[in-house]
Write a structure and sequence with these properties.
The structure is a single chain. The protein has 297 residues and is an alpha+beta fold. It has a single domain, classed as Metallo-beta-lactamase, Chain A, CATH 3.60.15. 21% of the residues lie in helices and 28% in strands. The chain contains seven helices and 19 strands. The two termini are 33 Å apart. The structure holds zinc ion. Zinc ion (ZN) binds next to helix 3.
Length: 297
């Protein structure tokens, strides 16, 4: 791999961006305007050096840049519809599905796994484009167990990642195992496929995760939705705190229908965005637009 190092001065002087060559690169002229902090290295993949031992690689699971309709954010009984229409006059809000790969201390950690190939998920081809196969992944850490985050763990009933140790908040895992709906069935299948390589952890166990990664409960989107602090808060893996950034950043009380408990989700969103601002963290959000990474000041 070829490395070119550029330094960001505007937002975070300590963070450097590293460009690597892309194995099967295609033109990315249709790429949405990238958010300011990561370097796009090929279609759906960008890279950012977090510190000297830690590199973030963003992997867009959806084939093309996408958006969500305003109506997704209208709330119960359409209570927020007028506000949403006023704040989002285009009728659509840019979005994405991302997974994030963190290279740290010679280990590869994947945060979430996208939709999976059967639903058109591009995660494995994005990984391949930067030289990795699923067998290279050491750890997978889940923000929650919705299908667009765990579908990619499976190929039919089999585990896609043949070596990885998988970590999931116990409260999240137990919730989905108790559900008989399609998402509950998918979670049950994933737990079975990974067997004793799947580890359910409690928030009180601060040593449960590898590489010093810390779990922080961000309940609301789901009953065990969790964000992760990497490299002493330099990087926050934000999961599904936010689905329509351009809209919700204007009013963090607005929640999409995907949030199981919208009020709790809004509190978690406000709390962790402020937390990230205070710590000057890079925020990597699974549904942020562009390359899925930003810094809020
Ligand atoms: Zn999601």
């Amino acid at each position: 791999m070829k490395h070119n190092v550029l330094f960001i001065t505007a937002v975070m002087a300590a963070i450097a961006m590293t460009a690597i060559s892309c194995g099967n690169s295609k033109s990315n002229t249709n790429e949405m305007q990238p958010l300011p902090v990561a370097t796009s290295i090929c279609e759906g993949v960008s890279m950012l050096e977090i510190d000297s031992a830690t590199t973030l690689i963003t992997l867009r699971d959806n084939a093309e840049p996408s958006s969500q309709p305003n109506s997704l954010f209208y709330g119960k009984n359409n209570k927020d519809s007028a506000k949403v229409e006023q704040l989002s006059p285009n009728g659509q809000i840019p979005s994405s599905i991302h997974a994030f790969l963190v290279k740290k201390d010679n280990k590869l950690t994947l945060f979430d796994a996208g939709n999976g190939i059967v639903k058109g998920g591009m995660l494995l081809s994005r990984l391949d484009s930067v030289g990795y196969g699923p067998e290279n992944i050491d750890y997978i850490i889940l923000t929650h167990m919705h299908g667009d985050h765990i579908g990619g763990l499976l190929n039919g009933d089999s585990a896609v990642f043949t070596r990885a140790e998988v970590f999931v908040p116990q409260v999240e895992c137990q919730y989905w195992l108790s559900q008989s709906n399609a998402n509950g069935q998918l979670a049950t299948k994933a737990v079975a496929a990974y067997g004793n390589r799947l580890h359910q952890f409690s928030y009180t166990d601060t040593t449960a995760l590898p590489l010093g990664i810390r779990a922080m409960a961000a309940i609301g989107h789901t009953p065990g939705h969790t964000v992760y602090s990497v490299s002493k808060h330099r990087l926050m893996i934000a999961g599904d705190l936010i689905h329509g950034y351009d809209l919700q950043r204007q009013d963090m009380n607005i929640s999409p229908t995907y949030d199981i408990n919208p009020e709790q989700a809004a509190e978690a969103r406000k709390f962790y965005f402020q937390f990230a601002r205070n710590k000057h963290s890079v925020i990597a959000g699974m549904h942020l637009p562009g390359n899925g990474v930003l810094i809020e000041e």
